[in-house]
Amino acid sequence: MEMEKSVAAKIKKVRNDIPDDLVFFILSKLYVKSLNRFGCVHKSWSSLFKNPYFMSMFRKYLLCQNHSYYKDTSLLQLETVTIDYELKFVLYSLFGERCQNKTKLDWPNPFEEADPEFDMVGSGSINGILCLVSKSQPNNRVVLWNPTTDEFKVVLISLRESVRYVDVEITRHGFGYVSIGDEYKVIRQLMYNPKSNIDNDIDDLSLEDVSYELLWEIYSLRSNSWRKLL
């Protein structure tokens, strides 16, 4: 009995001493669905998608083994449907060998609208993260969403969106990842148009308030802030 306890203790110690590099190497070869299941085995494994070192290994393996990865991948499809004479925007997950299977996604709605109209920025996700933009003017909220972990981040409103006496139109969006610094960024173009209903007798109205201006600004997820591009 004592010998069995000693052997069991040694096995437990060996299991606890497995280097992270070896764990990352093994887990990086799993499909996303399988990796999510392994999250309940060990507490630290549930946050692997937040580990830059692991994500770097995971992406490199996908690029080398892309043919096998496609067997377990899925696509997101944004559709406009008519329900009770109203247009609604629905997300579907397409999966299967030929993406012939289709499932409606019960995704979180962070746009503060009953039925938001939105676009996806770019042609797909970056490291599993999607950039969604509300098409409702003047809302134009930006949301970063990870369908795998179901986490999302509502990007804060820029101070340049609330300028007196002008209408702000956001015309273009871009979304990208900067490996140096391991951060995600959103870039967009803003256009200022003077409001047509301004009272010309307003004393504090300056040319700067109503002048036409086209500018770019960029958002950093790491600093959670917007800045103007000069």
Question: Any descriptors?
Answer:
230 residues; alpha+beta; 3 domains; 4-stranded antiparallel beta sheet; 22% helix
Give a structural overview.
This protein folds into 3 domains: 2-70, no CATH class; 73-106, no CATH class; 110-228, no CATH class. It contains 6 helices and 11 strands. Strand 2 (86-95) and strand 3 form a beta hairpin. The strands form 3 sheets. The protein has a 4-stranded antiparallel sheet, with no helix packed on it. It is an alpha+beta fold and 230 residues long. The longest helix is centred in the first third of the chain and has 15 residues, at 2-16. 22% of the residues lie in helices and 34% in strands. The chain has helices at residues 2-16, 20-27, 32-38, 52-64, 66-69, 207-210; strands spanning 74-83, 86-95, 101-104, 118-120, 130-134, 142-146, 151-154, 166-178, 183-194, 213-220, 225-228.
